[in-house]
Every structure is written in C-alpha cells, then in structure tokens.
Amino acid sequence: MRPNRTLEIGTGLFVLLGLVALFFLTTQLPNSGLKLSGTKPGYDVTAEFDDIGDLKVGAPVTLAGVTIGEVTGIHIDKQNYEALVTMRIEPKYNDIPDDSDASIDTQGLLGGKYVGIGPGGSETYLKQGSRITLTQGAIVLEKLVNKLFANFAGGGSGSSSSSASSSAGSSGGSGAAPGTGRATGHSDSASAAGGSSTRTH
Amino acid sequence: MSVAVADGALLRALRRFGATGIFLVQLLAQCVPACARPRLIVHQIYNAGARSLIIVMLSGVFTGMVLGLQGYSLLQRFGSEDALGIAAAVGLLKELGPVLTALLFAGRAGTALTSEIGLMRATDQLTAMEVMAVDPLRYVAAPRFLGGFIAMPLLTAVFDVVGLYGAQLVGVQMMGVDRGSFWSQMQSSVGFADVKEGIVKSLVFGVTCSLIAVFEGYHSEPTAEGVGLATTRTVVASSVLVLLLDYVLTAFFL
Amino acid sequence: MALSESAHTAPAPAADILVDVRDVHYAIGGRRIFSGLSLTARRGRITAVMGPSGIGKTTLLRLITAQSYADRGEVLVWGHEVSRLARREVYGLRRRIGMLFQNGALLTDLDVFENVAFPLRQHTDLTEELIRELVLIKLQAVGLRGAAELMPAELSGGMARRVALARAIVMDPELLIYDEPFVGLDPIALGVILRLVQRMNQALGITSIVVSHDVNELATIADDSYLIAEGRVIAQGSPQQLRDSDSSMVRQFLSGSPDGPVPFHYPAPDYFEQLLAEDAS
After folding, report:
1. What residues contact residue A18 under an 8 Å CB cut-off, 6+ apart?
2. Do residues A30 and A55 share a domain?
3. C214 in contact with A at a CB cutoff of 8 Å?
4. pLDDT tens for each residue of C185-225
5. Which residues of chain B does C102 touch, with a Cβ-Cβ cutoff of 8 Å?
6. Of A129, A131, C178, C195, whose CB count within 10 A is highest?
7. A24 φ, ψ to 5°?
C-alpha cells in the first residue's frame, strides 16, 4: 500500500514510548543501583552504625522531625565491619553542631527506616565530609526479644549483657536492654541502669 | 432435555476451543512469512497500539491515583504510609498493569480487529484473496495478530509508568508521603522478578487477546449481525480468558 | 456471437475443455446441493450457468477454484482433478484464473490503483514502472483509468465491479469466472459490463464462465448455456436450444412466470382450514 508517513511516524513514536517505559520499569525499579534522578545540591556527611536495619538509600534524614536531607549511600567499613552511611544535607541547614548524634528510627509502627539527627551543643558545624560520631543503630525487634529472654534467663541485672543501657528510657536494673547499639548521650534516663558506655569513633 | 442442551453447549464450546487452537497453529505458521512485509505489521501496530495509547494512559493515571488513595488510607492505619511506593509498584506491575491493559485492549483494539476482519469476510474480500492465490492468513490475519502481540507489552509498560506517577501524584503531592521514601522503598522492594512477571503476563495476554480477536473476525457469519455478534464474543472471551490466565500465571510465579 | 447449433452437439476434443465437472455430488450440513451435476466450459467460449436463486451457483464456482471439494464426482480444471492437487499447486491453478465477485470484493483499505496492482505485487517481482503500466492498461480497458486514485468506498456499484474486473485480468488469466456480474446494475452499467465480458472473450480469447440469472442479458453473449435446478443440469445448449426446450421448469425460468415447477406458494396447510380455525378461536 502507499506509504503513509504520518502513520509510520505515529507508530514509531508509540513503539519508542513503549520501549522507554519498559526500560524505565526494568532498570529504575529493581534495586539495581541505577538511579535516574540527578544529584541534589547540598553537602555530604557520613556516620557509622552497627546495624542499619532496613534503611535504604533515599530514606529521609530528619532533624526534630523536619526532613533536611536524604541517605545517598550505604557501604561497609572494612576496618570495623560497621555500616557506613552517607547523607546529603540540604545547603540551607548548614548550622548543625558537629557533636550531634544520628540514630536510625522507624516511621510509624511498620514503616521504613530513616535517620534522625539529634542536635548537640558544639559551636562548630557539620560541613562537607564531616563524620557524625555518636550514632545509634536501628532497633531490631528480634534482638530486642532475644535480649529480654536472655535477661530473664540470666535472672539478674542488666550487667549480663555486654552493652548497657537502653535508649528508650527503661528504668530499673533488670529491664530489658535493647542494646543492639551502644547508648548515646541522647538518652538521659538510661543511666539509671548503670554504666552507660558511649562508643566514639 | 437440559442435559442434552448442556451437552450441546459444552460440545460447541469444546469445538470452538479446538478450532481456536488449530487456528493458532496455522496462524503462527504464517507469521514468519508475514514478516516479509513489515509495512503491513507496522500499520497494524499503529492500529492496535498507537490508537489505544490515549485510553491506556488515561486509565493508567486514574488507576494509579486510586491505588495511591486506597493504599494511603490503608497503610496509614499502620503508620506505614511511606510504603505506598511498594504497594503501588507491586500492585501495578504484577496485576493491575497487565490485566487492565489487556481488558482495555480487548475492548478497543480487539473489537476493531474483529469487526474489520469480519467485514472483510462479509464482503467477500477474504474469499477474493483466496481466489487470487493470496493466503488471507498471511496477508490479513498474521500482521494483525503480530501487531497486537507487539503492542500489548508496550502498552502495559506505559500503563505501569503512568500509573506509578499517578500514585505518586496522590501520595506525595496530595497526601504528603515523603518522595524519597516513596521511590526508595519501591526500588529496594521491587525485584526484577516482579517486573518479569508483569512482562510475561502482558505477552501471554497479548497472544490471547490478539488471537481471539482475529479468530472471531475470521470465523464470523458473513452478515452485519454476524459481525456484531463476533465482536461481542471477542470482548467476552478475551476478558474471561485474561482473568483466568492471570490466576494461572500468578500461581505459576509464586 | 453464438456459433452454429451443430457445434454444441459434437463432443469437444479434450484439449479444448478447460473445466470439466463430472457427476458431482455435494452436500452441506445435510442439505443436498448437487446430485449428479455435469458441465463443461470450453476454451475460448463464454459458458453461462443459470438457475434460480440459492441453487448453488456460487458453490459451483468454489468447487472449480478448489475452495471446496465435491463429495462425489470429479472436477477437472485444465485436466487436473482439483481435489488431488497439493496446496501449492492449487495456488498455481488459481493464478491462472481470474474471478469477479458479485459486489466486487475490492480491498477497502487500498485505492483503485493498489487494488488492481495487488496480484502483481503479491505474485510477481515486476518493477514499479512495469506495474504502473500494466495497471493503467487494465484500467483503461475497463474505462476507469481516471479513477485510479479513488477509494473503493467512493465508487458506485458498477464502477467497483469494473475495477474488480481490471484486477481479475491483471495477471492475464486464461479463465475468467463471473459471479452474478449483472446484479443490481442500472441499464447503462449493465450494458457496460456486458460489453466488457464480451470484449474480454473476443479480444483476449479468455475462456469465460458467467454465473447469473439474468437470462436475457446472458443470452446475447453466451455460447453455451447450462440451466441448473434440483441439484443438476436440466437443460443445456445454445440459448436458442434452451428456448426450444419442452421442460416446464426451463420454460418457467426463461419466461419468468411466477408459478410452475417452482411454486409460488410456500408449502402451507389448507387455506380455508387455517382461516376458519383462526376465526373460531
């Protein structure tokens, strides 16, 4: 039949659109590491956690509940086998004290993980390449339960656990210690359990 | 009496099923030589695909938005709104995308195919081709079948993408779910297996809907009424088979 | 241009017979269509096949083009029994046959030029210029060269049929089959078609089989005529021989009288009984 130019152009566009959509679905969605979005402005800071739970790249970084940035990279520090998390903070939040702490919290009850920054009191601020030294890893439910049972079995003070106090403010000696991470200065009431150890990097 | 009637209906359905199978084999045999005329196939991809694009995109957006709304309201009860991305992506990729696109295809492109071929049958065009020593299967049926088969996964992909953006529109823009969480949760939870499942489904549905549409048109009664009945049969048979195959494939992939 | 009467009674040499239908029986779904049908189409002549509507004339054409196969009997085209031909040979056979359908059967998505060029494009490797020339020549022969750009939907019935005729002859077939070519045409268009059928036969020497029930029109151009009724041939010969026949069926058909062997009344119970029965209730 006579070649119909508009028809062929239309078909070509359609096929192109479909292929682009297919490409998007197969490469962008699965966690293949390919990301389409360009880099956002801001400065990078890092922090090491002993357990990040299921924190994902792209998870928000908040301060006092306000989103100030996002997680841009998750790697393993080969020297101490801890998780090294890179975060990009928006440029306008450039006055975060460099002794602030970072903890991995859960959104809601079953939500995803995010990084919460608790401000310190230092006069110097975080800048590009800064490392947040006070960190608390994610609270993993199974380890919580294990600790609880271990404590009951041990039938004693919380000293049976290698790490000490909780961050959730549990009072009393034999309280369950959700000690997946080391306690931070963030949790005040935890000192009641005695012997809060702070780990610095 | 009713047993005999049921027997007759069952027998007829069986016969039709068998005839469709035989037709499929004959059609597939003609698909390879039909590729010698790519222009015909291009024309049919346009008919089946490009012409269905608008309806697919519209339906995709609204489906995605509904997913966003319903998903948000459900997840909110558990405080897990940021998992909306996962819900939307998985729902679209594995189920809603392939199935809804197939149903839309059957309604728009399938009926067009059936009535077109049925009309050619009714006006003796197919017979004329036979007499001119041109195999109508090769010249008419195969390009239309291939066009539908190629168009379906492309349409499904467009539906999925548009649906995701619809869900994001509702979830992020309207309901305040964090954009980063939305996409990052989705990206880490959606595996290639999910995408693959959706693509396989769309391919199977493409074969099914195109085959039924072409078959019904080819075997319709050569009257105006016959073509109308054939068109109805296309939609009904395509819809039922798509949903049935959806169950089979879902079970197969689990 | 009918030949002398005696030519019809003498048996024709085998090479002269293009289509030979011998004692064919054919039934569809329990309904008997042909019971012992025999006819021949001789080379270079116009053979008319006539009969009442629904008698199976189109089915006969399907048997000749090997689209259907007889239950019993033989159908020989160019000496080959069609039911024994392989698929490829059937297609080879059909390439030597041109067929004109009742409503033209043009491909609706192609324009007139492309419709006529269709067989050439499908079956030959001719260059674009050659195809163009051939198509224009054939269109000129049917008088529609100026309509080459029109779409089938824009053609009148008569014009569509002429285009279909151009398409049927574009591959220079040896046998042309016309399925009810005069149906639904106004007198002018009818005359045009008639003249074309005759011209194809005379100028190009194409053997023609014309199926129709337009007795008077056919009589002016046919060489051999067959009248089919009750599933077989009930009269054959030249148009004059048919007119001289004393079969009442033939006479009813040729004269067009409403009642005779083909009854006017559809079978029904007794008239008065039915009327009175309805009154009483």
Report:
1. B49, B151, B153, B154, B155, B157, B158
2. no
3. no
4. 888 888 888 888 888 888 888 899 999 877 777 878 888 88
5. 124
6. C178
7. -60, -45
C3-46 per-position pLDDT tens digit: 344 344 455 566 688 888 888 888 887 788 888 888 888 888 89
Please tell me the distance from the alpha carbon of residue C83 to that of residue C86, in angstroms, as a whole number.
Answer: 8
Q: Are B87 and B70 in contact (CB under 8 A)?
A: no
B134/C118 Cβ within 8 A:
yes
Query: At residue B101, what is the residue type?
Result: T
| Same-domain check for residues A131 and A67 | yes
Residues 75 to 114 of C: which have CB under 8 A from any A CB? 109-111, 114
Pick the closest to residue A106 from A35, A72, A55 (CA basis): A55
What is the predicted pLDDT for the residue at C14?
62
pLDDT digits (tens, 9 = 90+) for B19-50: 888 888 888 888 888 888 888 888 889 888 88
Cα–Cα distance between C191 and A126 in angstroms, integer? 100
Regarding pTM above 0.90, the answer is: no
Q: Judge: C67–B132 Cβ closer than 8 Å, yes or no.
A: no
Number of domain units in chain A: 3
Residues of C in contact with B128 (CB under 8 A): 99, 101, 105, 107, 164
- At residue C233, the 3 state secondary structure works out as strand
- Is the domain of A85 the same as that of A48? yes
Across A62-71, C9-18, C166-175, which has the greatest mean pLDDT? C166-175
The count of CB pairs under 8 A between chains A and B is 130
pLDDT of B4 over the 70 cut: no
Residue C11: predicted pLDDT: 58
Cα C200 from Cα C82, distance rounded (Å): 25
Contacts of A70 in chain B (CB under 8 A): 180
Mark out chain B residues that contact chain A at CB-CB < 8 A: 39, 42-43, 45-46, 49-50, 53, 78-83, 89, 93, 150-151, 153-155, 157-158, 160-161, 178, 180-181, 183-192, 194-195, 198-199
Examine the domain organization and report whether A124 and A157 are in the same domain: no
| Pairing mode, strands C46-50 and C207-211 | parallel
Q: Given C91, C92, C101, which is nearest B128 (Cβ)?
A: C101
Domain that holds residue A173: 141-186
CB within 8 Å of A90: residues ≥ 6 apart: A40, A41, A42, A68, A69
Q: In a 3-state reduction of DSSP, which class is residue A139?
A: coil
Distance CA C107, CA B126 (A): 9
Edge-to-edge strands, sheet with C72-77: C31-42, C17-28, C72-77, C80-81
Q: Is the pLDDT of residue B183 over 90?
A: no
The residue range of the domain holding C17 is: 6-96+202-280
Q: In what order do the strands lie in the sheet with C224-229?
A: C97-100, C175-179, C207-211, C46-50, C224-229, C232-237
Are the beta carbons of A14 and B178 separated by less than 8 Å?
no
Q: Which two tokens stand for residue C3?
A: 């030949």
Helical spans, DSSP H, in chain C: 6-9, 57-64, 87-95, 112-123, 128-142, 157-169, 187-204, 215-221, 239-243, 248-255, 271-280
Nearest Cβ partner of C105 from B128, B134, B139? B128
Q: What is the chain C residue with the closest CA to A3?
A: C110
Pair (A103, A163) in one structural domain: no
Q: Indicate the angle between helix axes C157-169 and C112-123, nearest 10 degrees.
A: 20
Into how many domains does chain C fold? Answer: 1
Confidence of residue A190 (pLDDT cuts 50, 70, 90): very low
Reading the block at residue C276, the tokens are 């009175």
CA distances from C17 to B131, B159, C60, C170, C263 (A): 21, 63, 17, 23, 36
pLDDT of residue A164: 40
Angle at C215 between CA C62 and CA C162, to 5 degrees: 60
The predicted complex's ipTM stands at 0.78
> Which of A153, A118, A115, A122 minimizes the C-alpha distance to A137?
A115
